[in-house]
Amino acid sequence: MGLFVLSLVLLSCGNRENKSNTDKTLDSTDQKTATVPTEQKNILFFGTSLTAGYGLDPTEAYPALIQNRIDSLQMPYKVINGGLSGETSAGGKGRIDWLLKQRVDIFVLELGANDGLRGLSVSQTVKNLQAIIDRVKAKYPDAKMVLAGMQVPPNMGAKYAADFKNMFPDLAKKNRMALIPFLLDKVGGVPRLNQADGIHPTAEGDKILAENVWVVLKDLL
């Protein structure tokens, strides 16, 4: 009888101990601090051959370099390179809807350079860029927006060059977009940083473009 009672006492103690351990497990620090993985966001770079990385390996184009920087910082962003060689603002207006089929959290617009090199109407370029901006806003109203400023050579005429340059800050202000003042800053007109055509940056040049972009983009991440 004494042995039976002792066994019941030991069993009862064991049950209390197991319950205590179970409660401790359920209320553990690991359980309380468990976090849901952060959802990946998309950054769409939409532009010309400058964004596409003309003449370079895709890994050397500035959007890819931005992705490398983001990955090194373990930030939940995926870069989408929507650059196309020869693209004009009109061409971009016709192409943007297709790219907006995937969610866009940050939109970086780099268009207008080819318009300028062809001497196209600045007012028409403004209309095309505004149309692109409006479509992005309509589809993704919470997306953060960035505009890459560009310039044209002085041989296009002083007034045209000034109007073209001012187009970008004006659009950025109107649409409350972050502005990269001049995408090709410290690269444009520097022979050693450009390919033989004198227009498209070398791999070293694109590293500088990536820095020009990162200075503005990092504050939006």
Relevant terms:
221 residues, alpha/beta, 9 helices, globular
Stretches with pLDDT under 50, minimum 5 residues:
1-33
Supply the helix-strand structural class. alpha/beta
In total, the number of strands is: 5
Residue-averaged pLDDT, rounded? 88
Secondary-structure element series: HHEHHEHEHHEHEH
Describe the structure concisely.
This protein starts with a helix and ends with a helix. The relative contact order is 0.12. Strand 4, helix 8 and strand 5 (178-180) form a beta-alpha-beta unit.
Describe what you observe in this structure.
The chain has 9 helices and 5 strands, in the order H-H-E-H-H-E-H-E-H-H-E-H-E-H. With 221 residues, it is an alpha/beta fold. A 5-stranded parallel β-sheet has the order 2-1-3-4-5, with helices on both faces. The radius of gyration is 28 Å and the shape is globular. The relative contact order is 0.12. The model is unreliable at 1-33 (pLDDT under 50).
Record the SSE blueprint.
Blueprint: H1 2-26, H2 29-33, E1 41-47, H3 49-52, H4 62-72, E2 77-83, H5 89-99, E3 106-110, H6 113-117, H7 122-139, E4 144-148, H8 158-175, E5 178-180, H9 203-217
Parallel strand pairs: 1-2, 1-3, 3-4, 4-5
